[in-house]
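Job type: complex structure
Entries:
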Amino acid sequence: QSALTQPASVSGSPGQSITISCTGTSSDVGSYNLVSWFQQHPGKAPKLMIYEVNKRPSGVSDRFSGSKSGNTASLTISGLQAEDEADYYCCSYAGTNTIFGGGTKLTVL
Amino acid sequence: EVQLVESGGGLVKAGGSLRLSCAASGFTFSSYSMNWVRQAPGKGLEWVSSISSGTSYIYYADSVKGRFTISRDNAKNSLYLQMNSLRAEDTAVYYCARDISPYCSGGSCYSGGSFDIWGQGTMVTVSS
């Protein structure tokens, strides 16, 4: 399977909301509620922010939310803060494979 | 504290082998599916392999199939990745990760991508 498609970069000002899209196919994102999102700061391990499309792990701010429509999943970050600046990756179940998106660099202006 | 600690990375020549280890602590290791995920320098994340809690279900990315072998020892709370016939394109940081939501269907279980705990990573460099 091909990687999921994410925009290379997005940006926003503190306090604003941004949305990162993640487009797959009817064989992965479109057919299963098994999309997750990870935040990665430089030199650090990824951190799970959203799983099963819209569930937040304990300790993750409710400023982070996930959704899905058809073959596209989305991560929305509201009330942007400086510490949200990082790379974000989506991930989806795809049968015998698990596939990631190419990553999106979020810049907080 | 829930923790995963990888080890075993290093510099190896193309065609060589390495065995990575991942030591788990702070949770019931035998109850969780585990995965290896890698990240080449400056690149994105790539899923490598998964193994179910009881080792019944094992899967590999096409890029490593036939060369890498995932295994686990639940008595030792440890996950392993045996990497043979290494190539330059295998150069990456290798992370082990716990899966909290594997997908089970038709008598098989697969990685669900819900990786909630990650190790700090171990660097593997393959020289050509």
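Summary: The CA atoms of residues 35 and 119 of chain B lie 11 Å apart. The mean pLDDT of chain B is 96.
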